Structure formats: C-alpha cells, structure tokens
Amino acid sequence: MNPDTPKLEALAVVLEEPERLSLKRLELTPPGDADVVVDMEWSGISTGTERLLWSGRMPPFPGMGYPLVPGYESVGRVIHAGPEAGLAVGQRVFVPGALCYGEVRGLFGGASSRVVAPAARLMPVEESLGEQGVLMALAATAYHAIAGPSPHVELIVGHGVLGRLLARIAALGEGGRPVVWETNPVRHAGAEGYGYDVTTPDEDPRRDYRTICDMSGDAKILDSLVARMARGGEIVLAGFYHEPVSFTFPPAFMREARFRIAAEFQPSDLAAVRALLDSGRLSLDGLITHRVPATEADSAYRTAFGDPTCLKMILDWRSIA
C-alpha cells in the first residue's frame, strides 16, 4: 500500500440486530487504483429502507444480514485518490454507500466517518450545497419515479421529504399544479412557493387523476388510489413496501389501470438532478429539520423514525477523529 494512504479505519454506525445500534471502529478495505478514500462530513437517515433495516422488517434483499453499516445519503471530502480514480483530493462528493468493512456488511454503508469506494460511484457536488448534498439520493429517486413513460404526475401521496422533492420536480413541468395528499396535519406546511397544493384524501373530491405517484409505502393503499384515477390512468409505486402489494381486480379492470414500479435511481437521474440544482430550478431548502453529532446516532435514529416533525435527520461526522 502507498505510504501516503491515510489510516484505514473508521467509526461507523453498526446495526448489530434489529433495534440495536452501536458505533464501532472498523478496519477498511485498502483502496485500489480506481478507488478513493472519503472523510465523511454528513450522512442522512432514510425513513424508508433504513427504517425497515432498523426494525427488522426489511424483506429478503441482496446483501441483507446483520451486522451491517446502513446509509446511502452521505457527503464528504476526498482525502486520497488512486491514480485511476479521476477525482481530486479535496473535492466534496456525494457518496451513495460503500462496501469496505470486511465481515461487516455494507447495506448500504454510508453511515461512517470514513469510507473507501470506487470513484465511479461518487458524484462531485457544489461547495454551496453543504449539508444539503445528502439529499441528492432522494432527489434522484424522486426524479427517477416520474421520468419514465408517464404523463405529468397529478397526485402524489405523502408529504415527507421524498414526496416534497417529487412535488417540487413535478411542479417544474407543464401539467399544472400537482396535488399532494398528507393525512398528518403536522406535515401539511412547506408547500408554499413551490407550485403544488397539500390536502387530505377526505378533502379532495377529484376522481380523474391520470397519474398518481405513491410515496407512502402503504401496501394496502391501492384500492383507494384506483378509485381516484381516470380510465387508462397510471399508478406509480415509488415507496418501498415490506408487505405484499395487492388490489381488487374489478375496479382496476373497469378503469383499465396501469401500474408501474419505480426502482432505485440511476447515475443519469443524479446528473439530471444536479443540472436542476445548478440551474436554480430545484431547491433543497427546508427539508433538513434535525442535525446531531454522529456520536448521538442511537437517539438520532429513534427520533428520525418516531418524531413526525422530523423530515430529515442528518449525522454530523466532522468532529470525529
């Protein structure tokens, strides 16, 4: 190994088993010629897949098992770059996870003070984004959900961070103001100035939505959504569902409904989001609501999953030696 390579260990969030989290010093895999070493600045806590990992309700998934290092919403600085990496020391990059912890699984591996990762998986981010860079994964997920072969999204279910990002992106189109359903009154605020409206299903009489995007993760929601769609309409499943998803066939048959599953984001989605941010068309303001030092990770995870006022919790790794 090159003598200039930094110390290959990190303090990482480790899910030992469901609902048991610790911070551990882990040895890292030595970097190759196309890898970089990144000192993390911030990482976000996902209330979708990470909640399922934390609670033990994650369905069978490639790489699944405990102990594991979670996290795919991380931002840090390159402190070492291999000769074939194509990134420079000092660059701030978005890190969608890492597999560098030996016998401890990286699923998704971004909640750590330091990571080793292939440079090709990372994306440089503007200095001006700062901590908001952790939102790149969610913004790319939202973009991926509506960039497929569907008309303009007219109804979005859920006003969490993902729903807000999708609504902001959908509002950039030419199809009018999207509507967002949110049943928790605590989460109704935040749409002002972004070109969409927030209401509840009970207050919304409309039954002719052409495209509905569900971000709720509620496996039992489809029948209520089918009842609100136009003939030939589409429902995009953009949440993550830990139970079997089903629907009653006759109403969907009568409407000749279409269903589409939005999978994980692709590099092209990240690039598209970066272009929207660089142009000033997309804003990430107002989405990060809670910040704690990484040393308080256990309480941070519990707050992220249990406090409805917490849209996005981030861990601050900058003081970790």
TrEMBL record:
Keywords: Oxidoreductase. It holds the Pfam family ADH_N. GO terms for molecular function: bacteriochlorophyllide-a dehydrogenase activity. Residues 33-126 form the Alcohol dehydrogenase-like N-terminal domain. Transmembrane segments: none annotated. The lineage of its organism: Bacteria, Pseudomonadati, Pseudomonadota, Gammaproteobacteria, Chromatiales. The keyword Coiled coil does not apply. This is 2-desacetyl-2-hydroxyethyl bacteriochlorophyllide A dehydrogenase BchC. The keyword Oxidoreductase applies.
